[in-house]
Amino acid sequence: MLDQTAISQIKATLRKGIEHNEVAGANFMVIKDGREIFYHEDGLADREAGRPITRDTVFRLYSMTKPVTATAVMILVERGEIDLFDSVSRYLPGFKNQKVEQNGELVPVERDTNIHDLLDMTCGLGYGGASLSGQATEALFREVDERLLGESPLGTVEFMNRLGEAPLAYQPGAYWSYGTSADVLGAVIEVVSGMRFGEFLQKELFGPLGMKDTGFWLPEEKRGRLVKTYADNGEGGLTLYTGNHLGIIHQMDRDPAFESGGAGLVSTIDDAAKFTTMLMNNGTLNGVQILRPATVAYLTTSTLNDQQQKGFESWHTLTGHSYGNLMRVMTDTKTAGILASPGEYGWDGWLGAYFANCPHDGVTILFMIQKKDAGTTALTRKLRNIVMSSL
User: Fold this and answer.
1) In the chain, fewer beta carbons within 10 Å around the N or the C end?
2) Alpha helix (H) ranges present in 292-334?
3) Is CATH 3.40.50.2300 the right assignment for the domain spanning 4-73+198-389?
4) pTM over 0.90
């Protein structure tokens, strides 16, 4: 259990973050050895309406979707339906005959991009930037956003085939950079499974785990629980943010043509806890087995080689970590900028949803906020430092 001092410190730290307009509201959970030992909520889900954050508030996960996608890939791996060294072009023809940007010119790939490259973010596909690769990706996402609410939105497989035609920033497997790999994996899963990515997740993960509020959109009866998103207004306050981003419909009010494996899911803290607890239990929750223990062990292990790790080390606030299967993995607690546990893993989202699984201590930390450009915030690190120092 957390002692009373730690509980008071968590509540006071979160309250201060709300009062200083770091966030509008949040909920926070700590699980130990499969049992919830602490839950707290504070602040507002909708400042304009005065609606408070509650336990069933629905959050946009953004990149916290990625570990779900990696888990879905592992379901197919352990069934023998895909091989990690399968060329992506086997499933998505747009990835045939890819080109790589080198010294301002486009040259052929030395080998095909494979599924392993996608899981490790070593495929050369980024989210944008000044390079030819980045410009092509940004232009494609602009097109997706422009068509999002129209008569002919881009679907998951069509979008990813188009993305495969974009130049790569480097040769497959040569380096690490954060990007659109998980979206490609969602399309691969569609092709392999013969069903929409969201249907596959519902059948294989969300349904069996009882994640009743997780999906790529919200039916009308659930939309009143969706949290509002806020952004810094530049003057120490918060302003409402309503923009669509990375092909995600912000209002979550319709079944999207593009189901983003990198950013598309909404969920609640309790649903997220079912997913994280399943991983902590070596693939099983309440008698339902999603993955076998050996698969979970692989899923939650860093996989970068020394050259790829150099790319990851540019992410300063993740000092002490490596990466693998769309998650950060703690490899050196001595150099980390947080109080950390050896082998802990997890990820966060653009709007601040966050989880850390710490198998060494049997602890899971979940923090749900909705703040533009948040990722893992200073407030997130402060709260988890209180928890990790008191174990």
Assistant:
1) N
2) 293-299, 306-312
3) no
4) yes
